[in-house]
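Final report, Chapter 2: Outcomes

The project's central promise was a pipeline that accepts a single protein chain and returns its three-dimensional structure in a standardized token representation, suitable for archiving and comparison. That pipeline is now operational. To close this chapter, we reproduce one record exactly as it appears in the project archive, with the input sequence first and the structure output second.
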Amino acid sequence: MKILLIGNYQKLIPKLSRLLNRNHFESYSSYDAEAGLDEALSEIYDAIILDTELPGCGGLEVLKQIRRAGLSVPVLLLSPKCGVIEKVRGLDSGADDFLEKPFADAELIARLCAISRRKGELIQDNQISFAQLSLNLNTYQITNAGNSVRLSNKEFEIMKYFILRGCNVIGKEELLTKLWGFESSPAENNLEVYITYLRRKLKLLHSGVRIHCIKNVGYHLMNTEE
């Protein structure tokens, strides 16, 4: 999962980044409201951890602008106060959860996982599914009819995105931006390589699910057993 950290304290954000990395999250940090909002609007992140104490417009205004843009990305607010008034303001602004600083590392990870699970209806018990395929979000294992293989980090990100989109076609540009954060020829070559790896693993699992390519458009999952 890709997590965006938006915070004012240079001591807090590096600590959060290390904590997320230890728990197998990929994180990107932004130290001001304007840059953080720009990153959030790129729509490449699976969740956002947002500090309310930001210079300029402040964290709540950043959150409001994220929601005005129509983004449904889960947002966990961090605040030095978590009274009723602060919680109501945060939730009214579009927050999914609220955590008071200082906080316990385990609680932050638990709350982050909770709001991420609520994001999609397909996520149950840390697994998402398509047809007979099941992808474990903790172990990176993909399973079909009792057979399992482990995916690499990038293979996992790609397959997770495919499964969450179901049969919908995903453009190459969207995949490149979502998974690499930019569009480029090297990244496109890497995407094709990882698609090849995933096809081999699906074949190894004897799965009827295929990654189908529509020339000059993109990819989508197809269940050949229907």
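Archive annotation: The helical segments are 12-22, 33-40, 59-68, 84-93, 105-119, 153-165, 172-180, 185-204.
This record, like all others produced under the grant, will remain available to the consortium after the project formally closes.
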